[in-house]
Design brief:
This protein is mostly helical. Helices cover about 70% and strands about 5% of the residues. The protein is built from nine helices and three strands; from the N terminus they run H-E-H-H-E-E-H-H-H-H-H-H.
């Protein structure tokens, strides 16, 4: 007899839904650096009670996506120069390794998919859509890194992206982009050529160059 999975507790299902929705908004820069949130406001937005809202916030605080003050104030972190440098370094280390591991599996279908996504990045830039740009940019990187078959490393990378989401939105405004990231072209060229050192360099530079412009 087949054993049916136990249904999720309604509160658990609600907090998981809120957690995932908030996590996506933060990662894509829809909530700015230092922006305050309230449990009541979160509950109202997602039509849930305080308990699932509180649990979702607790998980995001643990991931570094939100900060919780001693007074109970919840906000997205406004990153210091030192924190930006630390996270940029983590991106460089993790993402260059993921790209290197993905290279042996980077067949033509993957490269064509990445080129299509990069065209989407261009469209978001033309629309001056910061959130859309961040979303498509992360999709470009995630699509490549999934081929690394290193789920623990990718999960760590996504946690870094999550912490950087609000700051990335601020960076977009400062860069005033008019064309796709130059290093995406270098990533694609290195994938086509099977050039691992070139791929590592392109990914590392793409991950760090823009972030370091925020310092100062």
């Amino acid at each position: 007899m087949m054993i049916q999975p136990r249904p999720l507790d309604p509160t658990t299902a609600a907090h998981e839904r809120v957690y995932r929705a908030l996590r996506t908004r933060i990662m894509h820069g829809e909530i700015g650096p230092g922006e305050a949130l309230t449990l009541r406001g979160i509950g109202k937005t997602y039509d849930v009670s305080m308990t699932p809202a509180r649990e979702a916030v607790r998980r995001l605080v643990a991931e570094g996506a939100l900060s919780l003050s001693s007074s109970g104030r919840v906000s997205t972190p406004a990153l210091s120069n030192e924190r930006i440098e630390e996270l940029a370094t983590l991106r460089a280390l993790l993402e260059s390794e993921l790209a290197s591991r993905a290279l042996p599996r980077a067949h033509i279908a993957l490269i064509e998919r990445l080129e299509t996504i990069n065209s989407g990045v261009s469209q978001m830039i033309a629309r001056h859509d910061a959130v859309g740009y961040i979303r498509m940019n992360l999709e470009f990187h995630r699509t490549l890194y999934l081929r690394a078959q290193a789920p623990a490393m990718l999960a760590m990378t996504e946690t870094v992206w999550l912490q950087l989401g609000p700051t990335m939105c601020a960076l977009y405004g400062r860069l005033n982009r008019k064309e796709p990231p130059y290093h995406h072209k270098l990533i694609l060229a290195a994938l086509k050529a099977g050039d691992e050192p070139g791929l590592r360099l392109a990914v590392r530079t793409d991950a760090t160059q823009g972030l370091r412009m925020l310092k100062g």
